[in-house]
Amino acid sequence: MGDKTISIFTLIDTLKSTVYDLDIAILEEASRCSREINQSQVGAWLLSQFQQQDDY
After folding, report:
1. Does the pLDDT at position 1 exceed 50?
2. Which of 17, 4, 11 shows the shortest CA–CA distance to 45?
3. Exposed/middle/buried for 42, CB within 10 Å: 0-12, 13-18, 19+?
4. I want to staple 8 with a disulfide (CB 3.0 to 4.6 A). Which of 34, 44, 46, 52 is the partner?
5. How many angstroms separate the CA atoms of 31 and 15, rounded?
6. 12 neighbors 31 (Cβ within 8 angstroms)
7. Residue 49 pLDDT
8. How far apart are CA 44 and CA 31, in angstroms?
């Protein structure tokens, strides 16, 4: 069986190409963080950033 997990880099690339009003700085920070911490932690952080943007 192949690996069905999505890497944070794939997620970031997808978001960059499909979400136009997203703050690119958040995606770049997530990319930097993904080199240092667990990808699930980066994903949780990224989701929290999106939720904060929705609050505005």
Report:
1. no
2. 11
3. buried
4. 34
5. 12
6. yes
7. 85
8. 13
The answer to whether 24 touches 36, Cβ cutoff 8 Å, is: no
| Residue among 40, 18, 20 at smallest CA distance from 30 | 40
Contact call for residues 18 and 34 (beta carbons, < 8 A): no
Alpha-carbon span 46 to 32, nearest angstrom: 12
Report the predicted TM-score, pTM, of the whole model to 2 decimal places.
Answer: 0.53
Alpha-carbon distance 50 to 23, whole Å? Answer: 9
Do the Cβ atoms of 7 and 39 come closer than 8 Å?
Answer: yes
User: 12: Cβ–Cβ under 8 A, 6 or more apart, which residues?
Assistant: 27, 30, 31
